[in-house]
Amino acid sequence: MAEGTEQPDEALSLLRHDVNNQLSNINLCLEQLKYEVTDPTEDYRFYLEAIAISCKKIQELMAVKQ
């Protein structure tokens, strides 16, 4: 590869890694919240599920090869 194209690839790889680390933290917190609240409301479950779906979508977008 040409020298000019290596740096953007490295930057993208680092960005993907950092975003995935943060998404992992969010997913771990979501799982913990499922056990913390003993009597969750419908809204509570809806918000947890919406966050989980969004995290999964971001992970899928980050996995797309450019």
TrEMBL record:
Name of protein:
Signal transduction histidine kinase dimerisation/phosphoacceptor domain-containing protein
Origin organism is: Mucilaginibacter defluvii
Give the source lineage, highest ranks first.
Bacteria, Pseudomonadati, Bacteroidota, Sphingobacteriia, Sphingobacteriales
